[in-house]
């Protein structure tokens, strides 16, 4: 059987994924007044992201069926060891990022917006929102790790050295965030690229499995999304280049140092 070039498989996957999504995306985009490559609100992004990410595993399952493989080929399974790695990754990712934010809060670099007068109801609403964000973070982490650190990484490694495949996959991961954020993603690109590199490293640490990377990714998403729910945001007491331009942690020196320290921790784990 002739081997299909990896670039053709990657292009086919994303083309089919996009083609199946457009019938849902177009009417939703019109109703929500959303435009690709423009900054989008959570109310615009989440419904579109939900339909997009619901389709992704089905498209990949189709590819697996054609090739006679399964999700385990790409490092994803529901084995007990994998689920344990997810738990460890989530705990490490969320706790370490929360610690960094707690330090910033203690230094007076973060503010919490005033809460509505009906405090018990508002607080209950916030708690439910944070709980729902927990489930959403796990889903986003699972889908993005399966696609980017699983399928895309595997395909690129077929024709490229591992280090180059990792750099390219992380670059694609970073650039695709521009679909939702437009030009505002530009200051975040180095951080998003580094995030992708660190998550591939987590897969290597986990012997090619995605459990640890899934957990780390989900933990980071949950903490960052919870900041908006609380809501907590950076102020002007520290320079934006340090804490993150436009309130985006990955667009600041602290965010980059956080990812670098996580990567160094994973490397020490390997050693």
Summarize the structure.
This protein has 271 residues and is an all-alpha fold.
Describe the structure.
By secondary structure, the protein is mostly helical. It has one domain. The chain is built from ten helices and two strands. It has helices spanning 6-32, 42-67, 80-106, 119-159, 162-175, 178-181, 189-205, 211-229, 240-243, 253-270; strands at residues 110-112, 232-234. The protein has a two-stranded antiparallel sheet with strand order 1-2. The longest helix is centred in the middle third of the chain and has 41 residues, at 119-159.
Would you spell out the secondary-structure blueprint of this structure?
Blueprint: H1 6-32, H2 42-67, H3 80-106, E1 110-112, H4 119-159, H5 162-175, H6 178-181, H7 189-205, H8 211-229, E2 232-234, H9 240-243, H10 253-270
Helix pairs in contact: 1-2, 1-4, 2-4, 3-8, 4-5, 4-7, 4-8, 5-7, 7-8, 7-10
